[in-house]
Amino acid sequence: MEIKDLDYHIQYDEASRTVKFVGSIRLQNLPAYEPIKNFLRDVAKQCQGVLLTMDFRELQFVNSSGITTLSMFIIDSRKSASYQIKILGSLNVSWQSKSLSNFKKLWDQVVLEIA
């Protein structure tokens, strides 16, 4: 499963249960993020009872609407609690250490690795 755009690429690898985000996501508003929101929901359905890894290390930028969409996904995941989430980030990408650490505040069971 994947979403491809000129500026970004989101791909789910079923074997490793990893969603990889690459590029820059600058969609206009929350409704524009619906395809990504639905993509993440579909992935979550496949990860019941296992660890889902979300790899942001190659995502150079995401705007506030994107952060809100990802935050809502974390909150929905917390509510269902039917799988765990591991988040991978990079210290080399300025927005990641602050923004990704907020996901841990939304759900304390999130495993966060920023290196």
Explained architecture:
This protein has 115 residues and is of the alpha/beta class. It has a single domain, classed as STAS domain (Transcription Regulator spoIIAA, 2-Layer Sandwich). 36% of the residues lie in helices and 34% in strands. The chain is built from 3 helices and 6 strands. A 6-stranded mixed β-sheet has the order 1-2-3-4-5-6, covered by helices on one side. Helix 1 packs parallel to helix 2 and helix 2 packs parallel to helix 3. It is globular, with a radius of gyration of 13 Å. The N and C termini lie far apart (27 Å).
What's the gist of this structure?
By secondary structure, the chain is α/β, with parallel strands linked by helices. It has helices at residues 34-46, 64-80, 96-106, and strands spanning 2-4, 8-13, 18-25, 51-62, 84-89, 111-114. It has a 6-stranded mixed β-sheet with strand order 1-2-3-4-5-6, covered by helices on one side.
Question: Which segments are poorly predicted (pLDDT under 50) over 5 or more consecutive residues?
Answer: none
Radius of gyration from CA coordinates: 13 Å
Globular, elongated, flat, extended or rod-shaped: what is the shape? globular
Q: Would you tell me which CATH topology applies?
A: Transcription Regulator spoIIAA
**Helix/sheet category:** alpha/beta
- Lateral arrangement of strands in the main beta sheet: 1-2-3-4-5-6
Helix content: 25-40%
* Secondary structure tally: strands: 6
For the record, the CATH architecture stands as 2-Layer Sandwich
Number of domains: 1
What pattern of helices and strands is seen along the backbone?
A: EEEHEHEHE
Amino- and carboxy-terminal Cα gap: 27 Å
Q: How large a portion of the residues is in β-strands, by DSSP E?
A: 25-35%
Organism: Leptospira idonii
Protein name: STAS domain-containing protein
